[in-house]
Amino acid sequence: MTDAISKQKTQRTTLGTPVPQRALPRWGFHGHNELLHGRIAMLGFIALVLVEWKFGHGILIRP
């Protein structure tokens, strides 16, 4: 049994210890999606601030 384990190709660190393998999430928070959604949210926030600055009041509040 130890032969089968030792024959598997695993990545090792410079100290010779095996690198743990992480399972990818099946749903939820993926790194690239979180970056994309964060950037889109920041663009929307800046657009909202610019519209409020141009009109002099908030979107939901009428003067």
For this entry, give a set of tags.
mainly alpha
| Number of H/I helices | 2
- Largest sheet composition: none
Gross morphology: rod-shaped
Mean pLDDT: 81
Q: Into which percent range does the helicity of residues fall? A: 40-55%
User: Can you tell me the residue ranges where pLDDT is under 50 for at least 5 consecutive residues?
Assistant: none
Give me the Rg, rounded: 25 Å
Residue share in β-strands: under 5%
Give the termini separation.
Answer: 77 Å
Oligomer: single chain
Task: Count all strands and give the number.
Answer: 0
Helix and strand succession?
HH
Q: What is the structural class?
A: mainly alpha
Give me a quick take on this structure.
The protein has helices spanning 2-7, 31-55. The protein has 63 residues and is mainly α. The longest helix has 25 residues, at 31-55.
Description:
The chain is mainly α and 63 residues long. The protein is 49% helix and 0% strand. The longest helix has 25 residues.
Topology:
Elements: H1 2-7, H2 31-55
